């Protein structure tokens, strides 16, 4: 159980880190496209600011999305064990895509501005997939054996 919890926290952290950084860079790319200078120092400062600022809103939403998706993937792994990595990649990606699409459809809110474009939305999905892949890697070890005589 501890290994699964640690794997979940690591997957969530990776998804959040990548999602936040990608979202920031997508927006700064659009700003630069308007002809405004965006030096690397500003990119770094803005990225760190967003990492801290999004922790109160985006991080808990990602946690909810992954806490639903990863157990579903585990169930699917039991049905098709040879596709374990694919299930966790798909689960992480689908969880994050669903999070953004549901928020937009139900609340009329785009919580992450970068998700207003298809590339930005797909980048967030890729961040979720990376988290799913990490969860897969951290939980893929040998399973405990039954005691002798059992």
Overview of this structure, please?
Helix content is 76%, strand content 0%. It is an all-alpha fold. The chain has one domain (2-139). Helix 4 packs across helix 5 (118-139). The longest helix is centred in the N-terminal third of the chain and has 32 residues, at 2-33. The protein is elongated. The mean pLDDT is 91.
Labels describing this entry:
single chain, 150 residues, 5 helices, elongated
Indicate the topology.
Layout: H1 2-33, H2 40-53, H3 58-79, H4 84-107, H5 118-139
Helix pairs in contact: 1-2, 1-3, 1-5, 3-4, 4-5
User: What does the main sheet amount to?
Assistant: none
Number of helices: 5
Estimate the global geometry from the Cα principal axes.
elongated
Question: How many distinct folded domains?
Answer: 1
DSSP, total strands: 0
Structural class: mainly alpha
Q: What Rg do the Cα atoms give? A: 18 Å
The percentage of residues in β strands lies in under 5%
The rounded distance between the terminal residues' Cα atoms is 21 Å
Global mean pLDDT: 91
Helix coverage percent: over 70%
What is the string of helix and strand elements? HHHHH
**Low-pLDDT runs:** none
How do you describe this structure in short?
The chain is mainly alpha-helical and 150 residues long. The protein has one domain. The protein has helices spanning 2-33, 40-53, 58-79, 84-107, 118-139.
């Amino acid at each position: 159980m501890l290994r699964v919890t640690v794997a979940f926290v690591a997957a969530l952290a990776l998804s959040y880190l990548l999602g936040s950084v990608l979202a920031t860079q997508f927006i700064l790319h659009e700003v630069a496209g308007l002809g405004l200078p965006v030096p690397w120092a500003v990119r770094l400062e803005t990225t760190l600011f967003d990492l801290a600022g999004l922790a109160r809103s985006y991080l808990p939403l990602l946690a909810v999305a992954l806490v639903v998706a990863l157990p579903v993937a585990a169930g699917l792994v039991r049905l098709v064990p040879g596709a374990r990595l694919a299930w966790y990649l798909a689960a992480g990606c689908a969880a994050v895509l669903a999070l953004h699409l549901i928020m937009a459809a139900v609340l009329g809110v785009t919580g992450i501005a970068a998700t207003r474009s298809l590339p930005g939305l797909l980048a967030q999905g890729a961040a979720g997939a990376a988290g799913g892949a990490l969860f897969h890697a951290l939980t893929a070890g040998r399973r405990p054996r039954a005691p002798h005589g059992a």
